[in-house]
Specification:
By secondary structure, this protein is mainly alpha-helical. The chain folds into two domains: 64 residues, Diphtheria Toxin Repressor, domain 2 (Orthogonal Bundle); 81 residues, Diphtheria Toxin Repressor, domain 2 (Orthogonal Bundle). Helix 2 crosses helix 5. The C terminus is likely disordered.
């Protein structure tokens, strides 16, 4: 004869333990803390529902340690109702991409330096990015050189970097998005 208690014990064995639930909850809260540490641009790239996004933004605004602690608990509670996998994937991408991103930035800086040193670099850019606005790049190059010569703030120098970054970031097989940016 089966005892009612023995059936209840079997259910506990198949479900997560109280300790496991607590660890899961803590992991979600830590994931929420990682979200809260993101800047606005990166946070916008993470797939979050509106309540969770608002809760993270509120956390970022709070000055008080205690308010942040309570908000973090609330974020953890909201996290229990979402699939953490896409969020974790986005955060991992930010972490993993950082080395890649640094290398990319160095490549772009080197390209900008080559362009400033030699206008023929425009040919390489045109080959790599057929939709590039070469006239705009030529003007930025000329202005950046003039800024450097006159000791002025490097506006065109920075703009040149931004345009090169957009060119590299735009998929080569999708010219319309590149044309919108330029």
């Amino acid at each position: 004869m089966a005892h009612p208690h023995s059936h209840h014990d079997d259910d506990e064995d198949t479900g997560p333990s109280k300790s496991q639930l607590k660890r899961d909850s803590q992991a979600l809260q830590e994931l929420g803390q990682e979200l809260a540490a993101l800047g606005k641009e990166r946070l916008a790239k993470v797939p979050l529902d509106e309540d969770l996004r608002d809760a993270v933004r509120d956390y970022q605004r709070f000055p008080s340690h205690e308010a942040k602690r309570r908000q973090l608990q609330y974020i953890g509670k909201l996290m229990r109702h979402v699939d953490p996998a896409p969020i974790r994937a986005a955060l991992d991408a930010f972490k993993g991409v950082s080395a890649e991103e640094n290398a990319r930035m160095h490549r772009l800086e080197a390209l900008r330096t080559r362009l400033l040193d030699d206008e023929k670099t425009l040919h390489d850019i045109a080959t790599a990015h057929p939709g590039a606005d070469l006239q705009h790049l030529r003007v930025l190059r000329r202005n950046a050189l003039k800024e450097r010569e006159l000791g002025k703030p490097p506006r065109a120098f920075r703009e040149l970097f931004r345009v090169l970054r957009e060119l590299e970031g735009a998929p080569d097989n999708d010219p319309p998005s590149g044309e919108d940016e330029a």
